[in-house]
Amino acid sequence: MKPSRISRLIEILTTLQAGKSYAVSDLSTLFGTSRRTIFRDLKELRAIGVPCHYDTQTGRYMIEPEFFLPPLDLNLQEALSLLLLAHEASKQIQLPFRKAALLAALKIENNLPTKIRHYCNSTIQNISTKCAAQAPTHLLDSIFAPLQQAILKKRKAYISYNSLFDGQMIDVELSPYHLFYNCRAWYVVGHSSLHKSVRTFKLNRIKELNISEKCFVEDESFVLDNYLGRAWSMIPEGQLYNIKLRFLPKVATNVAEVRWHSTQKVTHNSDGSAIVDFRVDGLGEITWWILGYGDQVQVLTPEALRDRVLNVAKKMIKLNEEA
Asked: Between residues 228 and 138, which one has the greater pLDDT?
């Protein structure tokens, strides 16, 4: 939703909440836009849970004044940070309950003092965020919400899952422990009866989900950080490696200024290059990260990682030479 439209929605909310009813033609004139746009705005407000009541006798709309929260005692920075977070988050497709996030932002903004509201409104129009490409999540709420409840109530879930590892659909009885977002997608981690171990499942690959009445006993020893361990991202392989990489001057600064892993150590060289050390569980995930830097990175150690990178690079060359 564009900032200008958010601003108009706030103004429509404030107008209708004042206790007076308005016809669509009145709102169209008041906000200098078409009747069609007003109808679309009212539909959007209803979609996020705002009770816009239409009186069939008078042909007018209004909102109950009691609907919104009481005035909030927020200073300028508190208000701006909350609204920026809510507005930007609501535009990201990977956020569950994004309509609820937008409604929360509208409630907060509607109850701010006039000067603070106007300042935030103007400021937000000049700030934006851009996320990396995301996994498709058009069914995120319908998967996320039931799993969230299953975790709270300790209920088992039955899922039909498109497993890339197995190369087919698999049926799993899952005791869900935790929901988490990693890089590009949402995941649920829990004990799989099929694998007889704790496993991670990507939400957008869950094709069917049913929550059971059967309860499971919570594993009180489970901690997500411990489960992920020192994996590069989220797949521990059970063996730790001391990894040393040399990044050439062209990318050294960009690489060094990002905290890629908890074990990261950086040494800057006089020629502008940088040596970056990691202690990582597994080589699979970090191999693909290294390949993303192409001819700007050199694997110093371990030899097993260098061999992996060389093997993939040779296959890439062969594949593209045959194209």
From this structure: 228
Of 111-120, 201-210, 261-270, minimum mean pLDDT range: 111-120
Q: Which residues have a Cβ under 8 Å from the Cβ of 85 and sit 6 or more positions away?
A: none
Average of pLDDT values for 158-180? Answer: 93
pTM of the model: 0.69
- Ordered by start, the domain boundaries in the chain are 1-131, 140-226, 240-321
CATH topology of 140-226 equal to that of 240-321? no
For the chain, what is the largest distance between any 2 Cα atoms, rounded to a whole number of angstroms? Answer: 80
Pairing of strands 197-202, 185-192: antiparallel
- Residue 180 main-chain phi, psi, to 5 deg: -150, 155
**192 forms bridges with which residues in the sheet?**
174, 197
Residue 165 CB partners (closer than 8 Å, separation 6+) = none
The one-letter amino acid code at 94 reads: Q
Top CATH class of 240-321 equals alpha beta
Per CATH, the number for 140-226 is 2.30.30
